[in-house]
Amino acid sequence: MADGGLKIELDGSLADGLKAAAAPKGVPVEQFVREVLAEQLFSDVEWSDDADSAIDVEIAQHAIRTGSAIPWSDLRPWVESWGKPGELPPPRWRRWSLRREPRLT
């Protein structure tokens, strides 16, 4: 591309999955892909399924230190989509306050 950008073509289930993940957020799939890539490439927070609980402590300390977290209201739809067609991508970390978060139900 002349402007230094990058064009990538995706087809099949990957393209369909991206479209399905972008739709509930109300953003164009191109914007969704840019945001997801930026978050994955430049985030200093890692997702882990490691059995070692030390990573959980590190993630909690990061949340306390930065004031960012993943509120339940963002996490719940993702967890409920697991194993279903159109499974949602992991929610993004954001500035968060317990006072704004509803109780777990």
How do the helices and strands line up, and which of them pair or pack?
Layout: H1 12-22, H2 29-42, H3 54-66, E1 68-69, H4 72-81, E2 94-95
Antiparallel strand pairs: 1-2
Our measurement of the CA-to-CA distance between the termini, rounded to an integer number of angstroms, reads: 49 Å
Which structural category fits the helices and strands? mainly alpha
Overall geometry: globular
Order of helices and strands: HHHEHE
Percent of residues in helices: 40-55%
Rg, Å, rounded: 16 Å
- Strands of the widest sheet, in order across it, are 1-2
Tally of helical segments: 4
Quote the average pLDDT.
77
Q: Give the count of structural domains.
A: 2
Question: What would your notes on this structure say?
Answer:
This protein has helices at 12-22, 29-42, 54-66, 72-81; strands at residues 68-69, 94-95. By secondary structure, it is mainly α. The protein folds into two domains: 7-42, no CATH class; 47-105, no CATH class. It has a two-stranded antiparallel sheet. α1 crosses α2 (29-42).
